[in-house]
Amino acid sequence: MNNTLFNTQSAPHIPNKNTVTKVMLTVICALIPAIMAHIYFFGTGLIIQILISVFFALFFEVISLKLLKKPIILFIKDYSAIVTAILFALCISPVAPWWISFIGMFFAIVVAKHLFGGLGQNIFNPAMLGFAIVLISFPQAMSVWLPVQEISHYNMGLLDNLRAIFIQQFPSSVSFDTLTQATPLDSIKTGISQELSISEITNSPVFGNFGGLGWEWIANFYFLGGLFLIYKKVISWRIPVTILLTTVVFSLPFNLYNADHFIGPIQHVFSGGLMLAAFFIATDPTTCCSSHKGLIIFGIGVAILTVLIREFGNFPDGVAFGILLMNLSAPFIDKLTIPQAFGQYE
Q1: Domain, as residue range, for 144
Q2: Distance between CA atoms of 214 and 208, rounded to whole angstroms?
């Protein structure tokens, strides 16, 4: 055979066009529209939170790599720590104290990532583990959110946000209760505990047409960013589609049984962090499943756990806990669903 007619380089013969760096940069690009929408609705606090989280993430990344005697520049340039920091910042309040990011990034980078061996060997999604730790440990600091600027009595500027984040000083011209408010899901949880109906709760200005005011538009941009990741073949469609469909199907019977007590399916999808989790967090290839069947089971599990925690748990949004519990289940699911190799006998 004339070898000049064929490329006969050593295996693998089909090169993978995606590198870790390229994938992470694509994820960051896909998040930009939602980040811009978040800033439009809630102000510049998110920019500060992202910068703080990125700083602490890189700080802990460098320290960990140095202690483990791994090449620092090589691993810093993969942008994985930066993506973790951005995802974490998108989950916390725009005016959360700076030390929330410090603690969150310590558990995300040092504990969830490097104590398990580094990128590609971690069991839990780093951003979600860091978020869950600070949510459980500091519920009061994590519950202080700003209202959408459209209905706010005072729109905080950059300096106002800096003071709130670094020295917990809020503008004296307005009261703290007037300046801040609960998230839509937190409002629903509190209202139900006060024996209010869902319809009475959602008549509040904090709610829009089919979700939290502002939150529904941010969710739309997460959706568009997720479609971009699917188009670029960075993620599989199986997990996000399964999570969104299962959330609707599983929450519908509760809502039909008692619409005054249980959240509607559309409200589930467009309030809170479900859309972000479905496309950008649950799809983490290291901490989800490997097989096609496994991905679908993983997505179903995340959705069911999220709905159950939202409806019956103590926390208003259970998506972080749903993902972490399914991260823990992923190896077992893979063991049951990985196809048998051709020619292999039991």
Answers
A1: 19-180
A2: 7
